Amino acid sequence: MIITAKEREVGTKVSRRMRRNGKVPGVVYGIDFENKHIELDKSQLLAGLRKSRRNDRFELKLESGESYNVVVKSIQWHPVTDDIVHIDFYKLTEGKPITVDIPIKLTGEAKGVKLGGDLYQPRKRITVIALPEAIPNEIVVDISDMNIGDVLHVFDLDMPKGVEVKSTKNFTLVAILGKTQEEEETEEETEEEEETEEEQ
Amino acid sequence: MLMPKRTKYRKYQRNRSGIKGTSYRGSKLAFGDYGMKAVGRGEVTNRQIEAARVAINRVLKHQGKIWIRIFPDFPLTKKPAETRMGKGKGSIEQWVAIVKPGRILYEVSGVSEEVASKAFTLAAQKFNIEMKIVKRSEWA
């Protein structure tokens, strides 16, 4: 995906004027690379983002003729209008690892959910350190074998080659919450016992 | 209904300037896949929060999970009817949460977009503030 941009002036007033005129201020940075402040066309940028996925590589072409391989490092969104306020690009350097957030995609329907359990996914992304050529778009986790009470942690994941987890390893990724049949039966039994005791 | 267990002081003066500005904190989806975001500003009472929660639960039919992202921690007082002025501040009538534009009030997960949208449309009618429905995005 190619994104065109041009260098811009720095400043609040300039940036506000840019946003009023349908442009988005941004910045490119990287290892051994002097930061460049850029402006992009909002409609072109949004179309590009819609077509691509997180951690996809972009080719950033400047008006001066320079071109860089970049990934989107972060995007600032307006809290009310949900417009893009600012975008950060990270210039990739071959052989130098970068820190990125990877979304976790769950596949299959868990056994426990079929039995009436609730799927709980407290973490939807994990932070990893990866080489530019090895950055995955997402980490696919098959949860079809998970039963009620089962928990999947970060350390249970099979990471692709060249990708190392930076997040804490014992974070819970997915859990199936709910009561197992045995627990329900024991609860029912105790309730019945209590009732009989009260009657006596 | 939601209210604090204890407060530092029993009654407070209304902070009229405290409702200015935009809610930068609490403006992103943190737990669920869909959320209800305030576009306007104002005070939301604990009765409204409860009524909206019930409305959401009725549509969800106890499927999925709900998160309430606001808490009514500010007491509002009222003097009884036909009372002369003076004799001290009135008693606490209700608890409110200050809501600025951008604030996410509710989040849900584990349901389809249609169900979430229907639930939030009904819930939004319980408030005197304009709301909009937001969805988790890959880029947000």
Structural write-up:
The complex is a heterodimer of chains A (200) and B (140). With 200 residues, chain A is of the alpha+beta class. Chain A is built from four helices and 13 strands. In chain A, the strands form three sheets. Chain A has a six-stranded mixed barrel with strand order 1-3-2-6-5-4. The longest helix of chain A has 19 residues, at 181-199. The model of chain A has no long low-confidence stretch (mean pLDDT 87). The longest helix of chain B has 15 residues, at 46-60. Chain B is α+β, with helices and mostly antiparallel strands. Chain B is elongated, with a radius of gyration of 17 Å. Chain B has helices at 46-60, 113-124; strands spanning 34-38, 42-45, 65-68, 74-78, 91-99, 104-109, 131-135. Chain B contains two helices and seven strands, in the order ββαββββαβ. In chain B, helix 1 (46-60) runs antiparallel to helix 2. Classes of the chains: A alpha+beta (200), B alpha+beta (140).
Outline:
The complex is a heterodimer of chains A (200) and B (140). Chain A is of the alpha+beta class.
How are strands sequenced across the largest beta sheet of chain B?
3-6-1-7
Unreliable stretches of chain A (pLDDT < 50, length at least 5) are none
Radius of gyration of chain B: 17 Å
Structural class of chain B, by secondary structure, is: alpha+beta
Q: How many strand elements of chain A? A: 13
> Distance N terminus to C terminus of chain B?
33 Å
Helix/strand-derived category of chain A reads: alpha+beta
Q: What is the overall number of helices of chain A?
A: 4
What is the overall pLDDT average of chain A? 87
Tell me the number of helical segments of chain B per DSSP (H or I, 4 or more residues long). 2
| Distance N to C terminus of chain A | 77 Å
Helix and strand run of chain B: EEHEEEEHE
Topology at a glance:
The complex is a heterodimer of chains A (200) and B (140).
Chain A: E1 2-7, H1 12-20, E2 23-30, E3 33-41, H2 42-51, E4 58-62, E5 67-77, E6 84-91, E7 98-107, H3 111-114, E8 118-120, E9 125-130, E10 139-142, E11 151-153, E12 163-165, E13 172-177, H4 181-199
Parallel strand pairs in A: 1-4, 2-6, 7-10
Antiparallel strand pairs in A: 1-3, 2-3, 4-5, 5-6, 7-9, 8-13, 9-12, 11-13
Chain B: E1 34-38, E2 42-45, H1 46-60, E3 65-68, E4 74-78, E5 91-99, E6 104-109, H2 113-124, E7 131-135
